[in-house]
Amino acid sequence: MGKLFGTDGVRGITNKELTVDLALKLGKAIGTYFGKNANIMIGRDARAGGDMFMRVVEGALLSTGVNVYEAGFGATPALQYGVKTLGYDGGVIITASHNPPEYNGIKVLSNEGIEIEREEENKIEEIYFEGKFNSSDWTSLKYDVRKETRLLDTYVKGVLSQVDVEKIRKKGYRVLVDSANSVGGLTTPIVARELGCRVFTLNGNLDPLFPARYPEPTFETLRETAEVAKVLKVDLGVNHDGDADRAIFIDSNGIIEWGDRSAALLSYWSHVKNPNLPPRVFTAVSSSSLVEEYLSNFGLEVKWTKVGSVDIAHTLMKEKGVAGFEENGGFMYPPHQYVRDGAMSMALMLELMASENESSASLFERLPKYYLVKTKVRLTESTNVEKIYKEIENKYSNSGKMITIDGVKITSNDYWFLVRKSGTEPIIRILVEAKDQSKASEIANELTKFVGGA
Greatest CA separation found in the chain? Predict the structure, then answer.
C-alpha cells in the first residue's frame, strides 16, 4: 500500500503531485471514514488551487452521505477551534501551511479540532487504496453545502478569553502583523486591536501567489519585515506562515527570535498561569537545548518527541502538561486548544510583557544565547537516508548525547545539531546551534558537505 499522509496532512505540488483526481478519491475516503450523516466543517487558506480542491472535496464528502459546512477562508487554528467549539464531528482544511506557493494540501481533523492520529490516517489510506467508499442513494442527497458563518468571531472571542485583556489594553502596545498574504490577516490584527494595540499590518491582503515573501517565516524571509519593525518602533512583531498556526516574533529591538526561544518564555508563562497542570512541556527533537537549560530553573521537565505537530499535540493531550511546541514557531496552549495557534501565541506574549512590565527584548534576554544555522540538502533518487543516519551516528557517537527518535540529534556541552528527513518536502534538514557563532557555521558546513556527498 502507498503512503499519502506526511508529517502533517497530505501535501504536494498543485496539479502535479496533488491532483483533482487524488483529492476526489481522498475526499471520498475521508467521508467514508467519518460515516453517513457526520457533520464536517471545511475551510482553506489563501493558496492557489484552494477553491478548486475545496469544491472537489466537498462534492466527494457529499457523495458519501456526509453533511458539509463550509467556513471558507480561515486560519488553521481558527478552523480547529471552530470544529471543537461549534460541535462538529470533524473537519477538513485545504492548506499546505508553510510550504512554498506551488504546494497545496489536505488535512483531516477529529472532533477535538486536532489532526487525526497516525492510526486514523492509516484507516483513511486503507479506504483510499482499496476503493471501498460509501455511496449515498440520490434520495438522501437533499442537502447542499451549508455555510458556517460563526467561525472568525467565535475564534477571536476564544483567544481573548484566555488572557487578561484589560491589563494588556492599559499598555497600548504597538504591534506589527505580517500575515504573508494569507489567512492570518483575517484574525490576528483583530485580536491585537481588541487587546488595545496600535496595529500595523504588512502583507495583509490575501494573494494566492504569496508575492511578498515565501509562506514560511524564517530569518531570510523576514529580513524586510524586521527592518519595518525597527522603523515603526513596535513593541512586538508577529509573523505567520500560510495558515497562521505559527508565529515567529520580532522583539522590540528588531531582532527575529526563533520559535523555541519564544516557546521557552511562553511555557514559563503558561506554568505561572496554570500551576495545577503537570510541570512538563512536549517538544520535538528539532528544538534547542536552551529549552531544557532555561525551563529547568522553574522545575519544568522537557519531554522530547518526533518532529511534527500531530505527534506533539496528541502526546500533550494524553499525558498533559503546560505546553507543547515546535522550533518553527508553533506553540500549543492546552487551556485554549491542543494545537499550534499563532494568534494565541501573540496574546500570551503580550500578556507576559504586560504582567512582568518588561519589553519583549528584555524578556528574550533572559534566555541562554545560542547561534542557529538552518540549512537543507535536496534529496535525489539515489539518496539513502537511513545510510546517512547510520554514518552520522558512527561519526559523531563520541561527541555527546545522541537522540534517534526522529533523524539523528547530537547534544554536546556547547552545541547541538539535528539531521532529519523532512516529512513535507523532498529534503534533508540540518539544524545546528552553538554558543559560538563560528562553531555553529563550521558544524553546519561540515554536515552539509557530508550529507550532500553521501
Answer: 70
Cα separation, 104 vs 118, in Å, equals 20
Grid cell listed for 404: 534517534
Q: How many Cα atoms are found within 13 Å in the side-chain-facing hemisphere of 421? A: 12
Q: Supply the residues annotated as catalytic.
A: 97
Is residue 29 within 8 Å of 84, Cβ to Cβ?
no
350, three cell numbers: 503580550
Cell of 131: 476503493
State the Cα–Cα distance between residues 46 and 242, nearest whole angstrom. 8
Query: How confident is the model at residue 454, as a pLDDT?
Result: 59
Between the alpha carbon of residue 56 and those of residues 94, 132, 153, 368, 383, the distances in Å are 11, 18, 27, 49, 35
pLDDT along the chain (454 residues), means of 10: 82 97 98 97 98 98 98 98 98 96 97 95 96 92 95 98 98 98 98 98 97 95 98 98 98 96 98 98 91 95 91 95 96 98 98 98 95 89 89 87 91 90 86 92 91 73
